[in-house]
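Notebook entry, structure prediction.
Reason for the run: the old model in the group folder had no record of what sequence produced it. Starting over properly, with the input documented here first.
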Amino acid sequence: MEEVLGSKINAEYSEQHAYIMELVDSGRIKPVLASKKNGKKPALYREYWKLEQKQDYSALKQELLFNLASQIDITYYQHNLQTYDKERKDVLLLSSFLQNSATLLTKQVSYNERSFQIWQKEKFLLQGAGKKILSHCSLELAQLNCYSTAEPFAYFASTRAVPQKLLIIENKDTFFSMRKHLLAGNSQLLGENISTIIYGAGKRVVSYFQEFNASAEPYMLAEGNELLYFGDLDYEGIGIYEKLAASFAE
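New structure, fully documented this time:
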């Protein structure tokens, strides 16, 4: 009872009684019957449950129906109004972008740049709640027309003439040795005419080349080019080669 009374803890008992009865009548608290009454007149129970107030979501329902961009499917939020209340700020920013800046989607940009355009937070889309917001709005990530920022790789080219053979080298020491060999005016490595060597950085070569189309120079993607791989002949080296070869299967 003391906690319920709050600032009225030192008020006259009649005022305390009236205050507590007002809270009971308004549905904000209800007595714990097992706590028994305090023995005063008029009596009050010694303990009370604090009741959660039901939030009025009618304004949010209207907002979902009439204020959001037509590209957003509101079905999920209509059935999860409490979630919409939490995510509302970010949903409204997305809606505003789709309503007022949708022409920006015609130009492909990085995920971080698109994230900043929409939410003014460049990490929000991939590392924040951006994907979840899109899912709740029934929007696909692909609809934002973004590309991944590819991991850059080191390479040396004696010529960019195509078609040519490009050699991916796992080991850094080997890369620099072969680069020195080509810089000396030689054109062959292991009996092959090699025009470009690329440093694969061990296991990182797999992640580097998952986005090869985005990070490679145009001449590297020319039809008729041949990619070769030079790495350690052990389980790890062979595993790297197999993953790399699979990523270039097409």
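Summary: The mean pLDDT is 88.
The old model has been moved to the deprecated folder.
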